[in-house]
Amino acid sequence: MNRNKTAVFFALLAAALYAINVPMSKILLSEVSPTMLAGFLYFGAGVGIGILLLVKKKQGKLEQEQWLEKKDFPYTAAMVLLDIAAPIFLMFGIANTTSANVSLLNNFEIVATSVIAFVIFKERISQRLSFGILLVVLSSVILGFEGEGTFSFNIGSVFVLAACICWGFENNCTRSISEKSSEQIVLIKGIFSGLGSIAVALVIGEAFPTLPYMLSVMLLGFVAYGLSINFYIMAQKSLGAARTSAFYSIAPFLGVGFSFLLLQERPAIQFYIALMIMLISTGIMIKDTLGAEKLYSGYQHSHAHRHGELVHTHTHRHLLYNPMHIHNHSH
Fold first, then answer.
1. Of 114, 179, 200, which Cα lies nearest the Cα of 316?
2. Whole-model pTM above 0.85?
3. Which stretch of DSSP H or E encloses residue 255?
């Protein structure tokens, strides 16, 4: 029982650490340009995970890891390129709308991931999940319009939705290499996508931030992405993937709370309408996730795949409010 309580704490901590990313990025944008901010956030996550890998290596904890191979290069390259574009779009979105809006709109990643998986990879989507997705779309449309009686579309919301679409494609690329080491994947995401974004920033004329802000952004990236991933993996070892996903799904709503607290944001009425719709959709999708998987002495998926008589562990991604979350479990 105590072990489960600890795991629940880790899952909630992972959600909270990621949720702080949007409002803190909003604050840092006053001193750091959007593309540079995106680059150093990812670079900080990569550096942090790299340090954790070195520690694990010294402790002899990497013997069972499966590493990326040459055949994985196309998916890895696509993952890196999409992870260059997505955070840049997100930072421009944060710069042009409220962070509370951004926190909720990030749920559109679920829509993008599910639709791409359905169209390209022919994955089945349940009726319950389809209804939840429609509610997310409805909520996103509501959030996409300016308040105060206008019907003009919010450019910041457009950027956030573009980021979610990029992450939707990226999620489906990552699924093809998901049996490999989660830490190695995040290391590659962080280092190469971060450096790529920094290169783009230099090309378009953005200046390097001062050293204190550079280190602050990297620390935020390590905390919001690197440590969040680490705590998530620790939680799912005891709770299983579905229950951990359910606890983690509070991240967008924590992001809204942090935005209210740190930035004193008070969005227009349509935000609260969208918030209620998003809460309902999240509840539906949590129920679908928990209903589709069952826990007994081991942990099993409900989606169809074959491994013969092989028993092993692998890593994969659930539909989460977090572009960098990958985890593993056994079956």
1. 179
2. no
3. helix 251-263
